[in-house]
Amino acid sequence: MNPIVPSRRDFLKGAAAAAAAGVVPMSLVKLAFADPAQDFTFAYISDAHIQHISGTKFVRNWDRGLIRAVAETNLLTPKPDFVMFGGDLGQLGMKEELDHGAEMLSKLRAPLHCVMGEHDYYLDLGEYWSKLFGPQHYSFDHKGVHFVVLNSILTHDEWTYNRWPSAQERMLQMAGLDNPNGSPFMVGEKQRAWLKADLDKVGKTTPLVVFSHSPLQKLYKGWNFWTDDAEEVQALLAPFEKANVVYGHVHQIQYNQIGNISFNAVMATAWPWPYPNSYAQAQHTMPVLTVPMNRADPFFERDATGWQFIDVHTGRVALKYNLYNNTARTVAWNPATGKPEDTVFQDPAKRVPPQVHY
Amino acid sequence: MKRTLLGLLVAAGLAATAARAADAPAAKPPLGLPPLPIPEDNLQTPEKIALGDKLFDDKRFSSTGQVACATCHDSKKAFTDSPLRTSEGIAKAGRKLTGTRNAPTVVNAAYFETMFWDGRSPSLEDQSQHPFVNPVEMGLKDHQPILKIVRSDPAYVKAFAQVFGKKGAQVTMKEVQQAIGAFERTQVAGNSPFDRYFYAGDTKALTDAQKRGFDLYVNKGRCVSCHRIEQTQALFTDNRFHNVGVGINDIQKDVPELAEAFLQAKASLAQVDVKVLGDKRTSELGRFAVTRDFEGLGAFKTPTLRNVAVTPPYMHDGSLKTLKDVVVHYNNGGVTKEGNPVNDFLSGGIRPLNLTEAEIDDLVSFMEGLTSPEYASLPSGARTEVKP
Amino acid sequence: MKRKIGIALAAAVVLAVVGGIAIQADEFTKKDQERWETEYMSVVQKGRALWTSPKLGTNGVACAQCHPNAANTHPETYPKFQQQLGRVIALREMINWCLQQPLEGKPLALDSPDMVALEAYVAYERRGVALAPGKH
Questions:
Q1: Contact list, A51 vs chain C (CB under 8 Å)
Q2: In chain B, which end has fewer C-beta atoms inside a 10 angstrom radius, N or C?
Q3: Is residue A349 part of a domain?
Q4: DSSP type of residue A4
């Protein structure tokens, strides 16, 4: 029996559904279940991992990821209010890598704010990075929203200052995600004190968005999807009615809700990581809420990578993930359930095979 | 069944076309092809196919009476207008109008999930209506002239009554399109030297150079992921859209302006048809013009490579003259001239290949092995330009 | 001559069986097991070292960058149809694909000790997962 092809009507229905799911990239995400408010967007590019080979040669694959994210961000209409870079601009924190990455980021047509990543930090403890991008933790206000940027990839002083014979060795050790000689990320006492003082000045009904490289949760310690003082940091954010955390490092779609706080991970422009669920030998505490990203086809070097633009909408963030080679996905706050949800795939019955592969 | 069909086709004057024996709808597909997809609402019958063929050849369906589907999809040229770069439609003031895109072959088009280089049409049936009303193709203002003819020309009146049981105003473009679709669906061809080698186990069917080329195709050449070959059949397409750096490279600076203009205009699909064939710069937006998704910027549908050697020139704009030029473009990592900057939206599957001259030649040889026997006598654009 | 050897061998066997030395049946001891397990793990370690090495390809990228702890390699699904190669393949052919494509390097010989080590590491990190051959 020959296979039957769908009629034109089905085809059009499919196209309309795709449009409804937010495929049109150049408008504010229109949320089916939120009230209009003072909307604005900002773009989020993260985890570029610019990797030096030798001389002026860099790993072409990662370069192309950052170039494309920047080019597409520049096509957004209306322009985003600002762009965040979510950390891990370089792979081994080298000056060449940070310079090469900064050069690519300089093509952005909106103001840039940067978050520190461990791949930027552990060679020179962020000295050159700070020359390029400024303070390693800071806050700013924008259109009635309070934004905080944390350096959440610090670790125990002993590991940072005393364990390794050279800066290069220390960086190499931290660079391996699954390296048993690594050390857990943390915000640390000093920075938590700064955070408390900063947040004390902010009204508890003001929407709060915290940018962090590590997840500010405890998801899987083996790959440092982990912040050791997550509970202490969360306690500082909990008093806010609308607290949002946006984090990098994990190179995959993740989202979660803990009390008042929504957590949203961003994609890497460089390469995807597997979900901890797929490592058979270890336990993890990944949020059940997350609908996984599609599994990558490794032939397409941009598959399972991407960038996002984020709507701040009634004080909650909605992320539109722009995924190369894949249908874009939108994870937005659903006031009915009080959690972030994927606007298309949250219902298990609606998931596609690449999402259940894990 | 087969004999009757063959008789009908011969009677309809199709002996000259490259028809082969397996025309009956339920027949086994040619070697190397999967079962033919047939829509549930447009089953194949010999009479419908014959009617479709007649409509396909009818020049009266153009504003000048000079252009039919067969003008750009000539059965004597494997259903293309090779070696034209971009197709020529009706003539105005003595000069033929041209579009922006190279005419794809109808052969094996039945296996595509979308039609046109940018996939703006979901089926053979749907596709057939658009060229009639495109200003640079057949130039009709609407489909009325076609309907007038098929409702009054005695041969058509008889045929539509017989095939669809419809007369007069009951005969609509839907019936016209279904007949054309049914005819096009019969144009399938496999059984190439590659098919005999890989699927029929004939180890002598490919030359040594072609065998080396096959190995490159799957490994170093990085061809197989888009131009799919699978364990029991090969369509040589993944039915997806990729930016491989043709055309868009020339408009890189203009992309933001063009993209924004396109979005503001929010064109319907029919308007997209006119816009992309009417303006070269807009044409280079590719799939983006249809989906308005970043993913589609500069992206075009992976064509089949079956019979590719005899359907030059190549790419959506016909800009690459020979298969060798094509391989060199891919070897350069998505630029035609080595060292040119690649465009920012280049597919992640495209990158420099570091092929040697000999390897490039072997890949070209392999692609020559994809020609079906019925088209084997056509001039080859594999290594030298085919001139008009 | 041959007959002499044959008789000597038979006599040795009888003596061995009577003496309690296991030379006929595969009666390995607990000590043998432990030793062979260590032999195996030495190759797993070698595989791990290769897995994290920037020198397998030509661009400094290591397997572990995309596959920490060999996750998402799904060795239990091989052999399977691999779309990227257009046919049914074994795991080591996909390892070679990765060496050539994302790592921009050269394939290993299918019987090379390094390939065996890589497979040993991948399988070890996936131990306990049921076979699911052909699963995409």
A1: 59-61
A2: C
A3: yes
A4: P
